[in-house]
Amino acid sequence: MDPKLRVGLKFPIYLDHHATTPTDPRVAAAMEPYFTERFGNAASASHIFGWRAEAAVEEARERLAAAIGAADGREIVFTSGTTEADNLALKGIARAYRSHRDHLITLKTEHPAVLESCAALEKEGFRVTVLAVDRFGLVDPDDIRRAIGARTGLVSVMAANSEIGVLQPLEAIGRICRDRGVLFHTDAAQAVGKIPIDVEALGVDLLSMCAHKLYGPPGIGALYVRNRRPQIRIEPLFHGGGQERGFRSGSLSLPLIVGFAEAVDLCLGSLEEESARVQELRDLLWARLREGLEDLQQNGHPDRRLPGNLNVAFAGVEADALIASLRDVALSSGSACSSASPEPSRVLRALGLSDAWSRASLRFGLGRWNTREEIEWVAERLIALVRELREKGRGGGPGPPSSPSNSKG
Ligand SMILES: *Cc1c(COP(=O)(O)O)cnc(C)c1O
Q1: Quick check: is 267 catalytic?
Q2: SS3 of 317, please?
Q3: Among residues 118, 210, 267, 337, which one is catalytic?
Q4: How far is it, in rounded angstroms, from Cα 180 to Cα 170?
Q5: Residue 8: which pLDDT band, with cuts at 50, 70 and 90?
Q6: How far is Cα of residue 185 from the mean position of the Cα atoms in its chain?
Q7: Å from CA of 166 to ligand 1 middle
């Protein structure tokens, strides 16, 4: 490697923005006073500390609601993150409507927070239909239409996938759900702040999101719950003081809530420019890799994807070996959320990729502070390493798989 290329770069280079993002210093600064002189419990109704806290929470609620096109701040229920919001949406709706609607519909490519909540509900006696996706990772809205029955209560489809970045056709799904009187939930953890999201235009009734994917603090998220037409009931997961209209008991974290709203507003303030900038870097990375290497393919949809997402399979290479050799770059082969399991990615498998191609796949997540110089450097290093690993592999290891699809198609 040419040492001159390293001049001006800061290592390690972070390309794992789907796993989490750093808190923007402007967000941290906005939060700071709420740890100290402006602290307070928003439920303390008898003094200025409580009143001030409540005012700050209500203002944040309004800003977050506005950010997703919701009519009313009261439709925002604060949670600890997206996992909790997903659990609250799925279990809360299923249990509240169980007497006449005990069927849920979701996709094979959903986040474990949704799929494992569904598995837990199946143990309670609910029925769950888990729909397949096409080779790009997209669901056919007609499959959802056909899966809806008289006892279907909820459809849950994520807005943007955390591994392949594919953007699902929310608006079409929302229309179908509305027509059939079925509630529509979307996990939008990867989408809010990156692409425009409007719960009214999309016909979304419940939406999960969190701050740490959009340059806000970790440990805070929210579930949007539509308040009118229809008014939605939810069986709470936590019982206690009845905060958040009874949907989620527990004292609110004032600094995290203030930081969440600040982070979302910063994202929306530069959404178009920033997504164009990040997408240009992503396209540059893909172009460089294609110029420098043969036998690679992009996983997911070529253009219906998050601006900062690229998922690439390098034939004949184990992604984990690649990551281990690429010490100066923070990268992941799939979802950090299921990294405890050595299994090949469920998402890539759902696209029809063989296990060998899944294990040859790297996920790039570009974000706010990545630069062109970083991307040029990473591309150059990757090309050299892939060539090196392929060379080694030819000395007796299994050859590169010849086709991305497995025999089942
Ligand atoms: C990160 C992520 C989650 C989990 O969010 P936490 O805040 O870590 O609980 C859920 N769904 C998607 C799509 C994600 O990207």
Answers
A1: no
A2: coil
A3: 337
A4: 15
A5: confident
A6: 14
A7: 15
Burial category of 167 from C-beta neighbours within 10 Å (exposed 0-12, middle 13-18, buried 19 and up) = buried
| Residue at 404 is within a domain | no
Listing DSSP states for 237-303 in one string gives: SS-SS-TGGGTS-S---HHHHHHHHHHHHHHHHTHHHHHHHHHHHHHHHHHHHHHH-SSEEE-S-SS
210 within ligand 1 shell (Cβ under 6 A): yes
Gap between the Cα atoms of 311 and 362, Å rounded: 6
Residue nearest to atom 5 of ligand 1 (CA): 82
pLDDT tens profile 297-341:
999 999 999 999 999 999 999 999 999 999 899 999 865 544 555
Look at 88-102, 174-188, 329-343 and tell me which has the smallest mean pLDDT: 329-343
- Find the 83 Cα to ligand 1 centroid distance in Å: 6
Residue 302: per-residue pLDDT: 93
Give the structural domain span for 131.
38-269
- 245, 269, 293 — which closes off a domain? 269
Instruction: Supply the pLDDT for residue 394.
Output: 73
Contact 332, 20 (CB under 8 A): no
Sign of the torsion angle spanned by Cα atoms 364, 367, 372, 373: negative
Do 195 and 334 fall within a single domain?
Answer: no
**For atom 9 of ligand 1, which residue has the closest CA?**
83
Q: Which of 187, 215, 363 to mutate to test the pocket of ligand 1 (most atoms within 8 A of CB)?
A: 187
List the CATH number of the domain containing 140: 3.40.640.10
Q: CA-CA distances (angstroms) from residue 363 to 39, 165, 214? A: 40, 10, 18
Ligand 1 centroid from CA 211, angstroms: 10
Angstrom distance (rounded) from CA 235 to CA 154: 14
Nearest atom in ligand 1 to the alpha carbon of residue 113 is 10
Q: Give the number of the atom of ligand 1 that is nearest the alpha carbon of residue 83.
A: 9
Distance 406 CA to ligand 1 centre (A): 29
Helix, strand or coil for residue 332? Answer: strand
